[in-house]
Specification:
Elements lengths: L3 H12 L5 E9 L2 E2 L5 E6 L2 E7 L5 E6 L3 E9 L2 E9 L4 E2 L2 E6 L2 E6 L1
Parallel strand pairs: 1-8, 1-9
Antiparallel strand pairs: 1-2, 1-5, 3-4, 3-6, 6-7, 9-10
């Protein structure tokens, strides 16, 4: 019985799918939160991931299956801005700042 429980835990953890990459953070419009409903999507290699929406604090959380270079697209006020990021085995925090210059939306890491 003493061996069975640790062995069971190891077997169960081995059968769970591993999450390759998580990207999370907050999105600001200048210095203020974008608030709820801004969409963020990612494309890593040839795989596109469905958009997620920010919560009321402007936070987002994406889970991607690949590690490596990814493109994030943020859609805000009928415009889209694109940013290159890297996905790793460990979660990556990417706080983003949106800026509008000459009527064009851009995004950068904070």
């Amino acid at each position: 019985r003493k061996i069975a429980l640790p062995l069971l835990a190891v077997l169960l953890s081995a059968s769970l799918p591993a999450l390759a990459g998580e990207v999370y953070g907050k999105i600001l419009d200048g210095t203020a939160s974008v608030g709820e409903g801004v969409t963020v999507e990612a494309k890593c290699g040839s795989k596109a991931y469905p958009a997620v929406k920010t919560d009321k604090t402007g936070s987002y959380h994406l889970v991607v299956a690949e590690t490596g270079k990814c493109t994030m697209t943020v859609k805000y006020k009928q415009q889209a801005a694109v940013l290159e990021i890297a996905s790793y085995d460990d979660p990556v925090q990417a706080d983003l700042v949106l800026e509008t210059k000459d009527g064009k939306l851009s995004v950068r890491r904070k």
